[in-house]
Specification:
The complex is a heterodimer of chains A (246) and B (445). With 246 residues, chain A is α/β, with parallel strands linked by helices. Chain A is built from nine helices and seven strands. In chain A, strand 2, helix 2 and strand 3 form a beta-alpha-beta unit. The radius of gyration of chain A is 18 Å and the shape is globular. The two termini of chain B are 34 Å apart. In chain B, helix 9 runs antiparallel to helix 10. Chain B is globular and about 60 Å long. Chain B is of the alpha+beta class. Chain B is 24% helix and 24% strand. Classes of the chains: A alpha/beta (246), B alpha+beta (445). The interface between A and B is medium-sized, with 21 and 22 residues.
Chain lengths: 246, 445
């Protein structure tokens, strides 16, 4: 039975991933901000086969509480953590953060700095136990800064780069670090965005994350076509790119 | 949460794809804790689950649909008592996946497992075991209803009884069902034992049916919709007992798990082109008068689920279904007349489903099943020709004191509706003022 830690467990993508681990009869520590929503997801996983269930309430921007979360994980999983997924994030309103320095900094803290802090805690733990799989949800938005969402993109870019370095460090310790780069996902986070055919179903994204963690993959674009799309977008020369409206 | 979104790539049509509908907007209900802001959304609103009803009970043309597909969490399942509570958007398919390995089955199964719990309640669905189990609503122990006033009501046979009885078979008009609790049924294996018998006339069907209803919990028959005399096959079934061939994980310790893959689903059901040839072949396939078999529950209960989007086989204009019930009488002349009209039209599906309903009452004020013979057929939508046929059939059903099933309907007149559902005025007092549907506007204006 696997020990699974999910930080940001009320995210639709994270919950779909967790359902697949629940079907394997995994034992969970779920971490999120909203207690009631977290409990609803915990109950769902229990009915779907989870063999153990603990929850921990955390606002990831409350850095002082990260240690308490790790202590809870130690206590709940004395044998170690098999899978850790860092899944939380917010989609800032680009128009707002462009003119509001405090909002821009806060969006960066939530989506990058706090994620880096959490990953650093996880890295120490996984380095000690010398096994396991860590995954972090980044985004295709982190592959190139675009005028339409560069604050979010910069944060995700930082996460991708951090995870890349961490992956090389942890490889020596038998720990995999998977960077998940979803494209558009039809989830509550994008509730205000008008949808088109490029939007993926959270259940499909969750299935891909589950598989990637099991296979200890490095970088996964979800759906896979985004790897090609971003390859093209990254190849556009800057002098052309800056005149495009992306 | 539950923020409005532009109507996305999802179609939000009904299963029959007729009538076409354009909701003004889609609001996704994310979970049972944070509900949509009804004040901001305005009227009319209607919950939309899986879109598996055929006509317009799930449509709200020009209004707002509250999509419940994200409302799919289990809340609790007690594998000792079989009591299951889940959010209303959870599908029966998801439920079976979790409960069958633990020895529990749905107390009432419709013809597809891809319906939501909320839809099952709102349409008070029935199944092959109506004569022993009644409708789905009879097995609902409680549910929560959220109304546009912002109030939430936990309804059960003992609590908020008026709303309970109005919401079961209430076509989603009493508010948003957020979660449902139901009593599941014990099974010992995932297999079903079947006994198939051929019949050559309606009278023969009725005799066989009466006998089968005493012997088996599941009884249904298929008849040739192109011939008036009522030839067909009657299938009676029961969950197989645990033995060497059929068992479940968790119910028999040390025994080998045997969960067979659902196979042998009849994809031929889908080809409307070879109807007449098919019917003869299907009917004659079974040379022996009787045949016994054992199959997995999935192809038995949900044969069409094996073929995704089979409804699209009927083309752009969509599919119309006609399901009626007429009370028993001495000669069953009305059923004969209905079969005759359909055969004469030549427009009916190759297979019609025929079954007798029992007398177990539903709590639902607007519940469709009542003692008698029920008949269900698919028709390709040929416009006026099909609709005129339905209106002729409605005349017969009305005279016989029967009813047509709203979940399958896109055509009945307001006059027919009021005759079929004499308690509609009592029901209407429980409707949430912000809720409405294309169906409701059609039959009340």
């Amino acid at each position: 039975m696997s020990a699974v830690l999910i930080i940001g467990a009320t995210s639709a993508i994270a919950h779909e991933t967790a359902r697949l681990f629940a079907a394997d009869r995994a034992s969970f520590l779920l971490v999120a901000r909203n207690e009631a929503k977290l409990q609803a997801n915990a109950d769902d996983l229990l009915a779907r086969g989870a063999t153990g269930m603990e929850t921990f309430i955390l606002d990831a921007n409350d850095f002082d509480r990260h240690t308490a979360m790790m202590e809870a994980a130690e206590r709940i999983f004395p044998e170690g953590i098999d899978y850790a997924l860092v899944a939380y994030g917010t989609l800032p309103d680009q128009a707002l953060v462009e003119g509001d320095a405090a909002a821009a900094a806060e969006a960066f803290t939530t989506n990058a700095t706090s994620v880096i802090a959490v990953l650093t805690h996880l890295a120490s733990k996984f380095e000690d136990q010398k096994r396991g799989a860590i995954a972090v949800i980044s985004s295709v938005a982190g592959d190139r800064g675009r005028p339409s969402n560069y604050v979010y993109g910069a944060a995700k870019g930082a996460v991708s780069l951090f995870a890349q370095g961490l992956r090389a460090r942890m490889a020596k310790h038998n720990v995999s670090v998977t960077t998940i780069k979803p494209g558009f996902v039809d989830s509550p986070m994008t509730a205000d965005v008008s949808k088109n055919r490029l939007f993926a179903d959270p259940a499909d994204v969750g299935a891909r994350i589950y598989k990637a963690m099991k296979r200890r993959q490095d970088v996964v674009y979800v759906p896979a076509f985004w790897r090609g799309v971003m390859g093209v977008i990254k190849a556009i020369p800057e002098r052309v790119f800056k005149k495009m409206d992306l | 949460m539950g923020k409005p979104t532009a109507a996305s790539q999802r179609a939000f049509q009904s299963w029959g794809r007729y009538p076409k509908s354009e909701p003004a907007r889609i609001v996704r209900v994310q979970n049972r804790l944070s509900l949509p802001n009804f004040e901001e959304i305005g009227a009319p609103v209607l919950a939309y689950g899986q879109g598996r009803s055929y006509g317009d009970v799930c449509l709200n043309n020009g209004g707002t649909l509250l999509s419940t597909s994200d409302l799919d969490r289990f809340i609790h399942f007690d594998s000792d008592t079989g009591v299951l509570r889940a959010e209303a958007g959870t599908t029966l398919a998801e439920i079976l996946l979790q409960t069958v390995p633990q020895g529990w089955f749905l107390p009432v199964s419709p013809g597809t497992k891809f319906v939501s719990l909320g839809g099952a309640v709102a349409n008070d669905i029935h199944g092959k075991n109506h004569h022993v189990a009644g409708t789905f609503g009879r097995h609902v122990t409680q549910f929560e209803l959220a109304q546009s006033s912002g109030e939430r009501f936990v309804c059960s046979p003992d609590n908020n009884v008026g709303l309970f009885n109005a919401t079961i078979a209430g076509l989603g008009l009493t508010g948003l069902i957020t979660w449902v609790e139901l009593q599941m049924m014990r099974i010992e294996s995932d297999q079903v034992d079947l006994n198939t018998t051929r019949f050559r006339s309606l009278d023969e069907f009725l005799d066989l049916s009466e006998k089968a209803n005493n012997e088996s919990p599941y009884v249904v028959a298929w008849i040739d919709g192109l011939r008036a005399e009522g030839r067909g096959l009657l299938v009676q079934g029961d969950h197989a007992p645990a033995d060497s061939d059929a068992t479940l994980p968790g119910t028999q310790s040390g025994r080998k798990v045997r969960l067979s893959a659902p196979i042998d689903a009849p994809s031929w059901l889908l080809n409307p082109l070879s109807v007449r040839a098919f019917n003869t072949a299907y009917f004659n396939k079974q040379v022996a008068r009787q045949k016994q078999s054992r199959i997995h529950y999935d192809p038995y209960f949900y044969p069409l689920d094996a073929v995704r989007d089979w409804n699209r086989g009927y083309g752009k204009r969509g599919l119309l279904q006609y399901q009626c019930v007429v009370p028993f009488d001495d000669s069953n002349a009305s059923v004969r007349e209905i079969l005759g009209q359909i055969a004469e039209s030549g427009a009916g599906s190759f297979l019609a489903v025929i079954k007798t309903f029992g007398d177990i009452p539903s709590p639902g004020l607007m519940s469709f099943p009542r003692p008698g013979i029920t008949l269900a057929l698919d028709f390709a939508n040929k416009g006026d020709a099909t609709i005129c046929l339905f209106h002729r059939l409605d005349v017969i059903v009305r005279e016989a004191g029967g009813a047509v099933y709203p979940a399958k309907d896109a055509c009945m007149s307001g006059e027919s509706f009021r005759a079929y559902f004499p308690r509609w005025e009592e029901f209407a007092t429980h409707i949430d003022p912000s809720f409405s549907s294309s169906f409701w506007r059609r039959v009340t204006t």
